[in-house]
Design a protein that fits this description.
Layout lengths: L1 E4 H8 L6 H11 L2 E4 L2 E3 L5 H12 L3 E5 L5 H13 L4 E6 L7 E5 L8 E5 L1 H8 L2 H4 L2 E5 L2 H7 L5 E6 L5 H12 L2 E12 L7 H9 L6 E4 L5 H6 L7 E6 L7 H4 L2 H27 L13
Parallel strand pairs: 1-11, 4-5, 4-9, 5-8, 9-10
Antiparallel strand pairs: 2-3, 6-7, 10-12, 11-12
Helix pairs in contact: 1-3, 3-4, 8-12
The chain binds S-adenosylmethionine.
């Protein structure tokens, strides 16, 4: 695996990326992170310009994003599409609907500062994103397992995998993306980090790195994660690879049986989780015994 700093990756891409301050404005409305009570940080905002550079390089027709949250990454990709590839579109999956109202953390750079406001992701987007960015986005509401099963996707040319982070979920997301790609595709995974309950590193180390030329991009320039979690392994970040580095045909490496098994293993889990959510909604006190699904 090649290890690159964020600045090296951007420089090597040859893409002229809008200023980081512009991404900060977008991030402050969609990705601000509360480290401790009333202590807000701009955690890994570098993913915005990184996605902008990758999308501008690849000019993908169809993008699939698993894990949208409040849409910082989605809007950064839509921005790049709008600047480079007007016909491209983004299918973006998350169990949280963009229409749902809830308390959202934001900072609109007014005197009010960082705060929680009752709003929906859709309303926030309409304030900060151009109309033609939003028109490129196709939000799909649900867990990746169910959405990937029931949606007839066109051939995907780029995927950003950033949904549930535990091993069987990331493995599912990777294999179900593979079921929807053609010959030419790029994939970016967030959170390659040695951290309990995070399975991205295991998946990349065991099943991706030997088949593709992978790049680990160190995007956390301010070392927020390292300082927050006292990480021992400094090599963490986002992992990018492209099909043009494949060493064997995709179908020979990841066999039909192997893909089906990975997908079915996770689907069983997701089904249990869905039933649990239904019970929680009916018997709210049980929520206290839930575990955190998306870590
Ligand atoms: C780390 S956040 C995504 C951040 C976003 N991609 C960005 O870069 O700004 C992870 C998101 O994954 C969503 N998620 C959790 N489990 C999921 C699943 N099984 N399928 C799709 N999304 C999932 C969560 O609701 C959460 O919004």
């Amino acid at each position: 695996m090649k290890i690159l700093s964020f600045d090296e990756f951007i420089l090597n891409s040859g893409i002229s990326v809008p200023s980081f301050d512009e991404f900060k404005k977008l991030g402050d409305m969609t990705a601000l992170f509360e480290r401790e009570k009333n202590d807000f940080i701009q955690l890994n905002y570098e993913r915005g310009p990184l996605l902008y550079a990758i999308i501008s390089m690849l000019k993908p027709k169809n993008i699939l994003e698993i894990g949208r949250a409040r849409g910082y990454s989605t809007l950064s990709m839509a921005w790049a599409l709008s600047d480079n590839n007007p016909s491209g579109r983004i299918f973006t999956i998350d169990p949280i609907s963009i229409e749902k109202s809830s308390k959202l953390l934001l900072d609109d750079h007014t005197t009010q500062g960082s705060r929680y406001e009752n709003s929906s992701i859709q309303k926030i987007w309409s304030k900060i994103a151009k109309k033609d960015w939003i028109e490129k986005i196709i939000p799909l509401t649900g867990f990746s397992g169910e959405i990937m099963q029931k949606t007839p996707f066109p051939e995907i040319n780029f995927a950003y995998i950033d949904g549930a982070h535990f091993y069987s979920a990331v493995k599912h997301d990777f294999y179900s993306v593979l079921n929807n790609v053609g010959e030419d595709f790029g994939i970016l995974l967030d959170d390659y980090v040695d951290r309990p309950q995070y399975g991205i590193k295991q998946l990349v180390d065991e099943q991706i790195d030997k088949h593709f030329d992978t790049s680990l991009i160190q995007t956390d320039r301010q070392n927020h994660l390292k300082n927050m979690l006292s990480l021992k392994d400094q090599n963490y970040g986002m992992v990018y690879f492209h099909s043009n580095s494949l060493k064997m045909p995709l179908k020979e490496i990841y066999t039909h049986n192997e893909r089906t098994k990975a997908i079915m293993d996770y689907l069983k889990f997701e089904d249990r989780q869905r039933r649990r959510t239904l019970i929680n909604d009916k018997v709210p006190f049980l929520k206290n015994i839930k575990f955190r699904f998306w870590e």
